[in-house]
Amino acid sequence: MSDDDDSVFAALRAGARGYLLKESEGADIARAVRAAARSEAVFGPRIADRVLAFFASSRARSAAVPFPELTDREREVLDLVAHGLPNAAIAARLFLSEKTVRNRVSDVLTKLHAVSRAEAVALARDAGLGPSPS
What we know:
The chain is built from seven helices and two strands; from the N terminus they run αβαβααααα. By secondary structure, the chain is an all-alpha fold.
């Protein structure tokens, strides 16, 4: 196959168990077919390096931002909740209505699978949001 990123990742998203380049030797292809039949993942060396680099950079991006499943605004609201601000103060600070803040807090609770505001605050503080520890 082609070694451009679009082709590699499109094949993986489509369910490919491996990926070899066009210039692969016959023995490598036969070995890859047998490995795929055993449900093993098979990648040529150049492809393996790129797949690993992609996931390493994704992990680094995810680690840099707490709760990547939240939007920037939701993360901002969570940080203010973790600082102990009530909805009215958050609304004033962010130039939002209290209803919008309530909705964002609800969205945060849902995405974090938190059953209460207190649980969300605990999760946020564990992730480094809220006031700095003294």
